[in-house]
Amino acid sequence: MSLIFKKKKRTINKFKIIISILGMLLTLYACSSIRLLADSSSKTPIVWVTSGLQRIGTHDQPERPSNIQLYAARGEYEPFQIGIRAPKSGLTNVNVLVSDLSNEKKQVISKKNITLYREHYIYVNHSSPDQRGSNNRSLGPGWYADGLIPFVNPETQANLTGFELDAVPFNLKGGDNQPIWVDIFVPHNAHSGQYHGTFTITSDQGVTTGKFLLKVWNFELPLKPSLDSSFAFWEEKSKSAMVELLKHKLMPSRVNPADQRELIDKWGLRSLRLPFWSGADLNNCSMEPPPSVEEIRKAASTHQSDLFLYARYADEINKCSNLIEPVKQWAQNFHKAGISTAIAMLPTPALYDDGSGTRRSAVDIWIVLPGMYNAAPKRISEVLQKGDKVWFYNALVQDGYSPKWQIDFEPINYRIPHGFINQSLGLTGVLYWQVDLWTKKPWKDVQTHSDKDGYYPGEGMLVYPGKQVGIETVVPSMRLKWVREGVEDYEYIEILKRLGYKNWALTVSRNVGLDWKNWTRDPNALESARRQLGEEIERLSSKKTSHSLGNI
Fold first, then answer.
1. What is the mean pLDDT of the chain?
2. Are residues 464 and 345 in the same domain?
3. Domain range for residue 488?
4. Looking at 187, 220, 253, which one is the last position of a domain?
């Protein structure tokens, strides 16, 4: 009888648990329904904030937070996004305002350091192809926020209105989302500590406000980034376009000599490519004779003496075994003129010596695709140990695992290779073949490249033409912003290396971006790693300051 009683008791307890769970679910459903009903019946905008490492869809459900905590060093850009959703009745005459940032000591970071953009949705008709066995797939056709329409002219700070694409004011249909990108630049002379600011959304239907908090860490990012890079403009050559790229911590491949001094001192220009080309590439295994040492020196003399100059005179010539000696001849002349050489190719033992007797490699900078790296990691290790540099580049969809740069991939694809994967693998630079590959209607059509394997929306296009928004230069994409964040991640690890914490920093890096196949898809994990790095630099910087004061 006691056994039967125990079984009945267990059965009753199970029913109680089930009933309790059902009650909880019904409560959650009721609360959710009430919230959705409130949202749908409201006539004011539904507003929320999220990190910069997200992409808000046209009809994504709003998140709840109206406040956000940010972290940044001096000399760093830190973004976040404001999501605005129209109630059922829609919104008209919407505008966005931000305040200065201030702390308890009444120290201020002026709102002049805050740049606002309306995110522009673009429709992707044909998604990027998926490689067989891919674990990093395209998100498919659909609407993507990508182009950024500035509220004001970046040079004059004048409001931009009356053009084909105006940032504000705007109208919003019922149930639609409109995200706003907010870029905060922390001045190099800012005081460390916690700052707070507010944003205000105005419309004919009412006013909504929110807060953003910024912890300024007690260290500074350098004006000139430690990560080498080469990003090419093919059409746009204005100084303003170069400034836009440099604001994102990336080096243009070429710059007008007359503009170089200003770009170095004010915007951090650190390297340039000399305009020599041999004719050898993936489709051509022949080379022109090398320029003379005198010709190279003459070309170099037109540039500022504190720039790192290099020559990338051939590309993707791994299949051209007949070019070993010609490459050495070109390299010898450049090396005699004091110029480094760079070629996109897999490290080749026959080129580990340029034949000059110095045992210097014919290629100083080996530039490799992720697939090339994975095909011969031993060779990468050999040239790194030898003292050569290795950069990476990416184009199209050449494998199924590495981060991709077409529009139809998750945002983390554009950020994680520059900081974490680069540092984890010992790579020191990045090359991208073009940033202004525009279609005839670039603000409407981003099918920039296609081949026999498919379409690559946004390939070669990291900026948009400014004419449609009322400025003469270019404007950034969200993808360019994510690349910038990756360059800043790289800098955090570089700072820790200089402070003697290389192994610890690389452990953090490898936990989120070990190599081209093993990297997190979780934005929260990346943000957590970046915060760990920042907090450790803050701790070490404060300790160093205290120690210095103790010796006075």
1. 91
2. yes
3. 278-542
4. 220
